[in-house]
Specification:
Helices cover about 25% and strands about 20% of the residues. With about 350 residues, the chain is of the alpha/beta class. The chain folds into 2 domains: about 210 residues, L-asparaginase, N-terminal domain (Rossmann fold, 3-Layer(aba) Sandwich), CATH 3.40.50.1170; about 120 residues, 3-Layer(aba) Sandwich (Rossmann fold). Helix 2 packs across helix 3 and helix 3 runs parallel beside helix 8.
């Protein structure tokens, strides 16, 4: 006899937990304890649902590493009591938070599913109900008594993706997220179809380890034609900088003008890791493929391979918090830790 899964629903903020005041038309947060009133269908799910809510729900535009640590701590404190976790979060920065959590939660053997919605839960045409109900169903999935999903996922509009492979691509459509370099883990149709080959392998003997040091003194610079020497020198000379992510063109190309290479040399000489991530939504960084990126390889610029910008930033914050030597930093960054790169 399989016992019911216990799922913890964590509300951080975002559209999904809003309800429209039909008098004024304004959106306001509703009490999460009243969840069943708004979604009576949850009673039909074959699991026990408990809820936790941020004391003051936050708009995802205000999300920062301090809140990531709050989420990780809630999971850590409740890890043994629950079989799975569903985190409700605003969609704008969901890929950043979900990517960060994937690095912060090492040796995860239970599902941590992020979801949200484009329309509030009480709206007539809301996508909130489907996203929430299916996220809980996926979090409760078990095989031989063990959770089927053992990683951080992001569920939106009929698909569960590996969280650190996602990026928000649309502010208007219900299909708000894409994972262009990695297939969906679960497809929701008449049945839930789990793509077993795509799942992260799990080692259940290892204990969950929660990392709570995230270094946010980093810089993300998107390259564009016309970015000049004065601007670059000003940015690269920021004294508190601990890490730099460069969003390059195509397969990792950056200008090879002498002034730019010289600025890069200087920042690398300060022992500051420089990560090269592509601006393209899909595809990979392949330094040395073109002449414009050959020099970068020689300088010791680190390749984010086919990782998203969100995952590259989160991984950089996480690894900087781990206080690694600069030699091992490059090797570890270029190694897939949570399935975030290929």
């Amino acid at each position: 006899m399989n016992k019911k899964s216990n799922i913890l629903l964590i509300y951080t903020g975002g559209t999904i937990g809003m309800i429209r005041d039909f008098e004024t038309g304004a959106l306001k947060n509703f009490n999460f304890k009243d969840l069943l009133k708004h979604i009576p269908e949850l009673k039909l799910l074959d699991c026990n649902i408990s809820t936790r809510s941020f004391e003051k729900p936050i708009d995802s535009s205000n999300m920062n590493p301090k809140y990531w640590i709050d989420i990780a701590s809630i999971i850590e404190d409740n890890y043994t009591m629950f079989d799975g976790f569903v985190i409700l979060h605003g969609s704008d920065t969901m890929s950043y938070t979900a990517s960060a959590l994937s690095f912060m939660l090492e040796n995860l053997s239970k599902p941590v599913i992020f979801t949200g919605s484009q329309l509030p839960i009480g709206d007539l045409r809301t996508d909130a109900k489907e996203n929430l109900i299916t996220s809980i169903q996926i979090a409760a999935l078990k095989e031989n008594g063990f959770s089927s999903i053992t990683e951080v996922g992001l569920y939106f509009e009929y698909k569960l993706y590996r969280a650190n492979r996602t990026t928000k691509i649309n502010a208007e459509h219900f299909e708000a997220f894409a994972s262009l370099n990695y297939p969906a883990l679960v497809q929701s149709g008449v049945h839930l179809k789990v793509n077993k080959n795509a799942l992260l392998p799990v080692n259940r003997r290892k204990k969950l380890k929660v990392h709570k040091k995230m270094e946010s003194n980093i810089l993300l610079v998107k390259m564009f034609p016309g970015l000049d020497e004065t601007t670059i020198n000003h940015l690269f000379n920021y004294p508190q900088i601990k890490g730099l992510v460069l969003e390059s063109y195509g397969s990792g190309n950056l200008t090879n003008e002498p002034w730019f290479l010289s600025a890069l040399k200087k920042i690398i000489a300060r022992d500051i890791p420089v990560i090269n991530v592509t601006q393209c939504s899909g595809g990979s960084v392949s330094m040395g493929k073109y002449e414009t990126s050959l020099e970068l390889k020689k300088l010791g610029v680190i390749s984010a391979k086919d990782a998203t910008t969100e995952a590259a930033l989160a991984k950089l914050m996480y690894l900087l918090g781990e206080k690694l030597t600069s030699n091992s930093f490059k090797t570890i960054f270029e190694t897939s830790l949570r399935g975030e790169m290929h």
